[in-house]
Design a protein that fits this description.
CATH class of the largest domain: Alpha Beta
Shape: elongated
Helix content: 25-40%
CATH superfamily of the largest domain: CoaB-like
Bound molecules: ligand PMT
Length: 422
């Protein structure tokens, strides 16, 4: 996504400019061609050498250098750029950008370029909330600039308030959102499930599984980077919410079912990579179960007891039945108008007879694609960074993919989905 993209990073004179060094490094490592432009005051906080070391390219600072080449540079830089990111966007630079003032290299490039503008304001809270700054932000937003909201936290003054520059993961996510706007999933709404469900036994214990959410979060992030509007329905996991993704948290299979049915109403695609528990404890104890306690349990001679499990709904199964019903209604003369067809993709987590079991699930759940993973391998399935998958198509053809990072598996799945949608 960032490979060979031309990213202009404009640095203003704010204390948070040191955080831009990490962003430039991450952009460069992701394969972007990063040109840094610094305002005069930015150089008082961070030396240009820090940026050129990270970007492996020259840093542009002086609009008035004696060679006179800067006049060509400020036009050429802007012409080639895919995006211009300004951070920390100070109140002073925001005011100049809002009013078309071009008195240094950064503001001159900003005026000359047609590349989308991403602004990450960071300053003292009194300056950020000042009506002049808010009015300038409104002008820039109206003109199409993408504003990354500053965070609330401890500021350089020691006070707590709004005005902190978010960390580089958030900045990187916002840049990807803007670069992905014209991607091959632009205009599509997709729903992804991730992580495992937790089925309570009592207020502190649950029946669960080993899903880390990595596969689902990779799918959601990749879809976002390709321009989709993404809803991520997530079980409890230790991963940060991807920037720009609508994350809806659930714990149990019943909650996941309700969240999925609500989210797919207006969706084009559903990818169920979450590990939904097929069973839940039939009775949930209202208080923590005590060792040796006999409350509402048949305790055997050794003090053990049986946990009775109830069936959870099969979410993909219910959606398949619902789609079959609506297809039948559509076939009746005068029946309902066809609604937007939902592309349904399931995963199969198997430890044996992977291919046979996967074929069975593809047919039973009437899926467009089924991604089978052999979760008995250490480099595949639950918790791992990589996955080994087989992609089954509705016509039962099968693709055998090599082991690859979950980000690569996600890209391969969305490639197939784009093909299905077209
Ligand atoms: O989260 P990670 O650590 O990255 O691990 C990724 C993964 C191994 C969890 C993922 O790649 C995966 O295989 N997810 C599906 C796990 C699963 O529940 O498989 P299943 O074979 O039991 O279910 C088949 C399909 O039906 C799945 O798409 C599942 O979401 C869905 N299902 C299952 C049960 C249920 N009650 N309702 C469902 O809709």
């Amino acid at each position: 996504m960032l490979l060979n993209r031309r990213v202009l990073v404009g640095i203003c004179g704010g204390i948070a400019s040191y955080k831009a060094v990490e962003l430039v490094s991450r952009l460069q490592q992701a394969g972007a061609l990063v040109d840094v432009i610094m305002s005069e005051r930015a150089e008082e906080f961070v030396r240009p050498l820090a940026f050129s070391t990270m970007s492996h390219r020259p840093v542009y600072t002086d609009l008035w250098e004696p060679s006179g080449r800067a006049a060509e540079t400020h036009i050429a830089l802007g012409e080639d750029a895919d995006v211009l990111v300004v951070l920390p966007a100070t109140a002073n630079t925001l005011a100049k950008l809002a009013h078309g003032i071009a008195d240094n290299m950064l503001t001159a490039v900003a005026l000359a370029t047609k590349a989308p503008l991403v602004l990450a304001p960071a300053m003292h809270h009194t300056m950020y909330t000042h009506p002049a700054t808010q009015a300038n932000l409104a002008i820039l937003r109206e003109r199409g600039a993408f504003i990354i909201e500053p965070e609330v936290g401890q500021l350089a003054s020691g006070e707590v308030g709004i005005g902190r520059l978010p960390d580089s993961s958030v900045l990187l996510g916002a840049i990807q959102v803007v670069l992905g706007r014209n991607g091959d999933l632009a205009g599509r709404r997709v729903v992804v499930t991730a992580g495992g469900t937790q089925e309570p036994i009592d207020p502190v214990r649950f029946v669960g599984n080993r899903s880390s959410g990595k596969m689902g979060y990779a799918l959601a992030t990749e879809a976002r980077d390709r321009g989709a509007d993404v809803i991520l329905i997530s079980g409890p996991v230790a991963l940060d919410a991807p920037y720009g993704v609508d994350v809806r948290r659930v714990e149990t299979a019943l909650q996941m079912r309700d969240a999925v049915f609500d989210a797919v109403e207006e969706a084009d695609v559903l990818v169920m990579s979450g590990a939904v528990a097929d069973y839940r404890p039939a009775e949930v104890a209202p208080q923590k179960l005590k060792k040796g306690g006999k409350e509402a349990r048949e305790v055997d001679a050794e003090g053990g007891f049986a946990l009775r499990l109830a069936r959870n709904p099969d979410i993909l199964g219910e959606l398949a039945a619902a789609s079959q019903q609506s297809e039948a209604v559509e076939r009746i003369p005068g029946g309902n108008r066809p609604r937007r067809r939902l592309v349904r993709i399931g995963f199969a987590a198997e430890t044996s007879d992977v291919l046979t079991n996967a074929r069975g699930k593809l047919a039973a759940k009437r899926l467009d694609l089924l991604i089978a993973n052999d979760v008995s391998r250490s480099d595949s399935g639950f918790g791992s960074e990589t996955n080994k998958v087989y992609i089954f198509h509705a016509d039962e053809t099968m693709e055998d993919l090599p082991v690859m990072p979950k980000t690569g598996v996600a890209a391969a799945i969305w490639d197939r989905v784009v093909h299905l949608l077209s």
